[in-house]
Amino acid sequence: MLIYLITSLPKLYIGEKPKISKEQLIKRVYECLPKNSLSDFNLLVQIDKEIEKSRLQSSTSPMGAKDTSERMDNSSMRELFVKIYEKTQSNFLKLWVKYSLNIDDVLVGLLCKRYKLSKQDALKKFSNKFDSTYKIIIKNYESSNLGLSNRFSWFNKLNELIQLNDLENTEKSIDLIKLQIIDYIKPYELFHMDMLLAYYLELSILERQLSFNATSGEKMLRKMLDSITI
């Protein structure tokens, strides 16, 4: 049934409205696959709903200093990602969490620099420390590139957007980076449960991309994507 399900899913394209919604995908998955095979999928859906709820709450808060502070102090969001890492049996999802938290750490470091926080204050912003990225940032905090320009190929693009205080396009770029990461880490085997998890993540990102600006089309998104490499 997994083979049938995956081959029946419509292709996803950047800048185009997906031909299936997350709700429709979830319904189809539950109709096609046995419940005992869906532990990782259920975990991802559950955490994704909590993440979207957190994003919605943040988006309704006034922009400005408060918004910037929330972006730098997002311990609740990180806890959700860590929960996925601790509970999942999927190596794909574990890798996804690692990459996502790396991006989050870089964003926190750049925002701390942008708003001239001291090294000591910046260190306090790294909650739920997951790997060594935050250590590199703090060690190289006085450097304009935080010691990361050679570690992450997408760093310079994010740094540029943060310096321009272009928070909306920063969010869009982060999602595009994540799309490339998904494509990079998903399994080569087509008919694998991880491919379904990857599809759900890609669908979630594309739905969110379209919600940023109803008039932004494929040309703009592809231009941004072309400027970012993994």
Report on the structure:
With about 230 residues, the protein is mainly α. The protein has one domain (about 40-55, about 65-225). The protein is built from 12 helices and no strands.
Q: Please give the radius of gyration in angstroms.
A: 18 Å
Largest sheet: none
Order of helices and strands: HHHHHHHHHHHH
What is the helical fraction, as a range of percent? Answer: 55-70%
Q: Give the beta-strand count.
A: 0
Give the number of helices: 12
The geometry reads as: elongated
Count of domain modules? 1
User: What's the end-to-end separation, in Å?
Assistant: 33 Å
Can I get a quick summary?
By secondary structure, the protein is mainly α.
Brief descriptors of the model:
12 helices, 230 residues, mainly alpha, elongated
Draw up the topology in text.
Blueprint: H1 2-8, H2 22-32, H3 39-59, H4 65-72, H5 75-87, H6 91-114, H7 119-124, H8 133-139, H9 155-163, H10 167-185, H11 193-212, H12 218-226
